[in-house]
Amino acid sequence: MFDRPQVGERAILVHIDFFSEGQREQLQEFKELAESAGASVVDVVTGSRNRPDSRYFIGTGKVDELQKQVESQQVELILFNHTLSPSQERNLEARLQCRVLDRTGLILDIFAQRARSFEGKLQVELAQLRHLSTRLVRGWTHLERQKGGIGLRGPGETQLETDRRLISGRIKQLKRRLVKYTEQRNLGSRSRRRAMVPSVSLVGYTNAGKSTLFNDLTDANVYVADQLFATLDPTLRRVDVQGIGHIVLADTVGFIRHLPHDLVEAFRSTLEETCEADVLLHVIDANDPERNAYIDQVNKVLKQVGADAIPQIQVYNKIDLNETPAKIDFDESGVPIRVWLSAKTGEGLELLQQALSDFLLQEKVNGWIVLQPQQGNIRAALYAIGAVCEEETNTNGDNLLKILLAKQDFARIQKKFAVELEVNPVGLRDKTDVPTMSALN
Q: What Rg value do the Cα atoms of the chain yield, rounded?
């Protein structure tokens, strides 16, 4: 067994075109992935096949071609733009005498580099161990025998079994730690729901400009770079939206074609912020010819994590690259469904604020009500959930309240106190004309 290098700098990319649409990958995107991981691409080997080879994934002729390039160009790493089986990785490494990594392993390596928070590091480690557990045989074929000899006689456990047991124990430990972090995050989510603070999450394909837009809206200093998976750890910030008040905006990890299942599972707890959002801002690169395919990929991942039913506003970013004017697109009901802007130049940001306000107000009760003095319990309940924006008293001693709250909370208040509240959503010039409340019989 040869000694594999810990990291690979000089790399050759292998990209095979298959006739099956489900197996096709994009070469340019793979180059960007390799560069994001820090690899120096010295060559790209391409080809086409009807189906992968069971032993090497590629044909023996391509293997011979790779072997010559590895020797002549002193290559340390071969990157495949596909998912390899453990046996295919092992066979290729034994034949090429250098490290071989598939698309899933490359994405896991990028995530390991980008993770900054403690929770993010735990999630990446969990995904890596799940991936590694199926590939242990690749590096331990020389130890597939029982321990023996003087001082080595033990319970009959092979080295491979020992490593699998240790990895299994570490995975259980990581899961327990992540459960604690999930519980802590849920506490924050519940407190925001009790205070009726709307939650908005940025989602989208990687490198669509989510973090740049997040910084523009929040004056935050989230790391931004023109590379895939520049943002990994989720970030929450408070934003003021006209007519709504405070909202919580979340910046999440970007998605990609064929995102490894282990990563989706490991980051499921982090993506729960997306599942609990009131609305998703789906950021799209308006200048990318593959944008429709990317929209489909993002929606597939959202379905995986259970966020496919949450309403979306599509945000077409980078309009400065194709000179598209900033605008809002509405549906037949007048609800905003699409905003065109440039996070880089700031053009159209005020339109996004307007679209958010219009959309969230569709789900809110916003207007004036009147409560008689003996109905102070209802007034107290509205204050307790933070629904009162303004209050005045008329000449009759009635309390005039301007309220803003979710429709379901408004219905809950009415049901609890068995009353029917009439709301003037326009606002009042003469507040004595506010409709009164009548008891339900």
A: 28
For 388, phi then psi, to 5°, come to -90, 120
Asked whether the CA dihedral 385, 386, 390, 393 is positive or negative, the reply is positive
Token output for 179: 């459960």
State the amino acid at position 9 in one-letter form.
E
Q: For the range 110-114, what are the long-range contacts, defined as Cβ-Cβ under 8 Å and sequence gap of 24 or more?
A: 110/33, 110/36, 110/37, 110/228, 110/229, 111/229, 111/232, 111/263, 113/37, 113/38, 114/229, 114/230, 114/231, 114/232, 114/233
Cβ contact 190:272 at 8 Å: no
Strands 77-80 and 99-101 turn out to be: parallel
Query: From CA 158, how far away is CA 148, in angstroms rounded?
Result: 10
How many residues are recorded in the chain? 441
SS3 246: strand
d(CA 349, CA 205): 20
- Per DSSP (E only), the strands in 40-169 are 40-49, 77-80, 99-101
Q: What are phi and psi of 93, to 5 degrees?
A: -65, -40
C-alpha angle with apex 76: 57 to 46, nearest 5 degrees? 40
Question: Higher confidence at residue 323 or residue 231?
Answer: 323
**Residue 100: exposure state from Cβ atoms within 10 A (0-12, 13-18, ≥19):** buried
Tokens of residue 396, six digits:
């009759």
pLDDT tens string 227-277: 556 555 567 788 888 877 788 888 877 777 766 666 676 666 557 667 778
Do 138 and 146 meet the contact criterion of CB atoms below 8 Å apart? no
Question: In the numeric block, which tokens belong to residue 310?
Answer: 């949450």
Do the Cβ atoms of 421 and 410 come closer than 8 Å? Answer: yes
Contacts of 21 (CB under 8 A, 6+ apart): none
Name the phi and psi angles at 190, rounded to 5. Answer: -65, -40
Separation of CA 90 from chain center: 32
Which helix or strand (DSSP H or E) is residue 338 part of?
strand 336-340
